[in-house]
Input
Amino acid sequence: MSSVIEPQLSFSTVVPREHVHRSAISEVFLTDIICEKYPRFRLGVQLPRQHSYYSEHSVAESAVYDPLLLLECSRQASILIAHRYVGAGMDQKFIFNTGNLRITDLDGLSVRLHPGYGILDADIIEEKKRGDIVIGITLAIEIQLDGVRVATMDMSIQWMPGSAWDKVRDRGRAQLDLTASTPYPLAHRVAPEVVGRRSLENVVVGEVSADATAVDAEIVVDQHHPSLFDHPLDHLPGAVIFEAFRQTGVVAAQELFGLSPQRLVATVVRATFLRFGELELATRTRAKPLPPTEDGTVEFNIEMLQDDVVITEGLVAFRRTGRLPIFGVRA
Output
């Protein structure tokens, strides 16, 4: 009887940085990809135990991989799949439409004595077409780390030629008064401990105001940040927006529920991108709380605004590490 030898993922090196739209090799976390049977894929990842951005949180009593590192792995996976298997040329420009990361096993994110070896099982569940040409995909991703299912990620992306991108960007920017406001000064960031960080470099929140129903935060955009801006961009990247959502949620948890930033880990980060964020404009976020859940999770609906127009909307949820839930049942 003959046997079928299934291909095995390699964890020996990372994929070419150009295939996941990174400039620095150190910012590439995918090691391999296998198309099991279109539209199903399996990808290898290796998570670093130390990273200047992803490993720099001040969460007490716990050393866990940053959930946003899993989100970045998923973003890279979507681009790699599009380039290698869906026909997106290397000259195409990509748009991140929606992203929904959900941590299913927080204990499974614990940092071990070795780099985190993971597997992303990704399925294309929908294709966006123009005629017969695929110009976008929606993915359902399941993430395993050291053999344990730790998270899911649902996301959609699309792409277009550079010439079309330029027309879209020029048309959108022409409708804005890009001199109406200026970005929030880098020098006015809040102290790192306010947002659960150790390094000021990784803080994206500035002045904060709060009442009993909402928290507003000015957003700091540092275009020289080595991870959030791995390469020059003409718009506000998704990485900055997801981090702004998380840090705004951390501040809101402290302001509205009295929870320590040093004990909060994000378990859900969700965003729908409605329009481009412009680098020339002031940016702010607004977090509104939802009733605490039965397991003690705190959740916030969050909007990002420029010129009082919502450019991204979403949700973040947090669990406290090292302690039992402190809230009652949701009303």
